[in-house]
Amino acid sequence: MAINLSKGGNINLTKEAPGLTAIVVGLGWDSNTFDGPAFDLDASASLLALGGKLVADSGFVFYNNIADPTQAVKHSGDNRTGSGQGDDESIEIDLNKVASGVDVIRFAVTIHDAAVRRQNFGSVRNAYIRIVNPLTNEEVVRYDLTEDFSTETCVVPGELYRHGSDWKFRAVGAGFAGGLEAYVNSIQ
Question: Rounded CA gap, 73 and 8, in Å?
Fold first, then answer.
C-alpha cells in the first residue's frame, strides 16, 4: 500500500521497499476545463551535488535530453496534453548507476510556453508525483499537488536524495513564477 505524503514529508525508500534498486517516478496531471490551448507540462530531473547545484549541464534530464551520461536517469519523452489515465510522463532511475557525486535528484514540472499561453499551475488539475517499483509495478509513495500555485509556471513536487547508504524521497511542493528559467537559475 502506497504512502501518501504532504508537503515537507519524506520517506526512506530503502527501508520502505527493501531491495529496491530502480524506481519509476510518474508525473501526472489533467488539463484545464477552460477554453484555450491544452496545458503542455514538461517533467525534468536535475542531478545535483551537495549544496543543490547541477553537477553538469548533461545532468538536466528532460524531453530534449532524455538520459544523463551514465544512463542512470532516463526520461520517457514528451506528453503534450495530459490526456488519458495514469502517468503522463515518467522518469526511470537505476539507483545503482547514479554517480557518487549526485546527492539529490530533483524533479520539476514546467508549463511549456506558459507566458505566451497565459497559463499557470492554478488551472492544472489532479497533478501528482509518485514512485513506483518497476519490478512489482507497486506504487510506493504518492504526493498529490493540492496547493494553489496561482501564479507559478514551474513546480518542484519532490526530490530523491541520499542519506548515508539509503535513498529517501521528500515532497517539496515549491513553485517558481518565472518558469523553467527561474528554476534553472536556482540550481546553477
Answer: 24
Which grid cell sits at 96?
545503482
Q: How far is CA 2 from CA 16, 18, 112, 163, 181, in A?
A: 10, 14, 30, 21, 33
Taking the C-alpha atoms of residue 140 and residue 153, their distance in angstroms, rounded to an integer, is 28
The x, y and z cell numbers of residue 11, run together, are: 520517506
User: For residues 175 and 145, is the Cβ–Cβ distance under 8 A?
Assistant: no
Backbone φ and ψ for 14, nearest 5 degrees, come out as -65, -40
| Closest C-alpha among 98, 100, 108, 102 to residue 49 | 102
- What does the pLDDT look like over 48-83, one tens digit per residue? 998 899 999 999 999 889 999 999 999 987 655 555
Q: What is the 3-state secondary structure (H, E, C) of 9-58?
A: CEEEHHHHCCCCCEEEEEEEEECCCCCCCCCCEEEEEEEECCCCCECCHH
3-state secondary structure of 4: strand
DSSP annotation string for 166-181: EEEEEEEEEEETTHHH
Helix H or strand E encompassing 139? strand 138-144
Query: What pTM does this model have?
Result: 0.90
* Per-residue cell: 188: 546553477
The CA distance from 9 to 107, in Å, is 15
